[in-house]
Amino acid sequence: MATKSVSTFAIFIILVLVIFGISKIEAQDSECLKEYGVDDDGDDVGFRFCAPRIFPTLCYRRCQKDKGAKGGKCLWDEEGSGNVKCLCDFCSEEPFNQFISPT
Q1: DSSP-assigned states of every residue in 38-100
Q2: How many CA atoms lie within 13 Å of 93's alpha carbon, on the beta-carbon side?
Q3: What are the residue boundaries of the Knottins-like domain, all occurrences included (predicted)?
Q4: pTM for the complete prediction?
Q5: Mean pLDDT of the chain, nearest integer
Q6: What structural domains and CATH numbers belong to the chain?
C-alpha cells in the first residue's frame, strides 16, 4: 500500500513540474509581431517608417507611441523591391535588429 502512495505522489510531482515548464515557453513571433498597417489617411506606412535609415527607426518609435508596443521592426520583401512592412513588437523592446530581411 505504501508503494502505491509513493507512486501516486511521484506522478503528481512530475505532472506539476511539466505544467510549470510549459508555462515558461516563449511567445511565438506571430503573437509578438503585428503589422502597423495604415495611417489616418489610409496610406500604408511601411516605406515611410522604414526607408530612412535612422536609429531607432520611425517604425520602432511610432509603434511605441501609437500602438503601445515595446518596439518595432521593418520587414523588407526583397532587396531593392521597396516593399516593406512595419511590424510592431509587443514582446521585446531591444532596439537592435530592427531590420528583418527574408531568408
Answers
A1: B-TTS-B-HHHHHSS--SS-HHHHHHHHHH--SEEEEEESSTTT--EEEEEESS----S--EE
A2: 7
A3: 31-91
A4: 0.61
A5: 78
A6: 28-100 (3.30.30.10)
